[in-house]
């Protein structure tokens, strides 16, 4: 007896509803764990700290958020020859919103379609469209080094962090050396692709080599712009994070900016591991736990309020902005432009 599958539209709605349920459940679990670990945790105090933010403090936070959006637009445009900052902002916001609510690797297909609709050929759209995804994953591997430098600059005292960072940096160096060796030449990449093809039992060797050659060509042409854009994004993100913490009342005497940078970089490194959508729930727990060790007793509600505001700006606020950007793209795209799908490997 055959089982009738629901229509694809209904399946998508079910998947999206499941994604939203996972986000809500992760936040509820994170709050329960905070209440269990920190006996002075009080959700009403957290909300009160957020409500006490003045208009001036909100203006500072929103200005830092706007700077972050500009930085993300610069980074998105850095991978595509001739792409304007405005279209870079549209691609970043639209893909951010889609990946927040749609399960699976949904950012690259959307970015590819957007670039094709703007007249870029399939090769440029495929390579440049994958650039932000690959670069974002790669930069997270560098975050343990950033955290280690911040730890040294700020003389941050957090139990076990120094040993953890030492292990993370050693793993980073080993992984980076292995990747550099494999992609250093086309022959070594083809050999590694052959090994992968045998493991997955699919003919992926040649697509891996093509992707390597395209990535090398893109990196040679655009790496300076990409690094500049990434530096802007990291700087703007840290400024926003510090502004949120200072806005809710966490003083520099309790958590200096190097300490906050160290924690932020560690959480960014943790986000390289696939967990919940946008690492919601997981990031909040790590933020509060580590900054709580730095600040000491009695600051858990203030720290949680700062994390709530930061995540509100970086995870939730981009969703309506991204949906608006997606609608703008769909409204302005020329229907005469053929948009094909990237070839499957």
Number of domains: 1
Poorly predicted ranges: 1-7, 336-345
Question: How many helical stretches?
Answer: 13
Task: From the alpha carbons, calculate the radius of gyration and give it in angstroms.
Answer: 22 Å
Could you tell me the strand content as a percent range? under 5%
Query: Terminal Cα separation, in Å?
Result: 34 Å
Spatial shape: globular
Secondary-structure-derived class: mainly alpha
β-strand number: 0
Strand-helix topology:
Elements: H1 8-37, H2 43-51, H3 55-78, H4 85-101, H5 107-117, H6 122-154, H7 161-183, H8 186-200, H9 205-247, H10 257-270, H11 282-295, H12 300-316, H13 318-332
Descriptive account of the structure:
The protein is mostly helical. The chain has one domain. Helices cover 77% and strands 0% of the residues. α4 crosses α13. It is globular, with a radius of gyration of 22 Å. The two termini are 34 Å apart.
Record keyword descriptors for this entry.
13 helices, globular, 77% helix, disordered C terminus, disordered N terminus, mainly alpha, 345 residues
Concise summary:
This protein has 345 residues and is mainly alpha-helical.
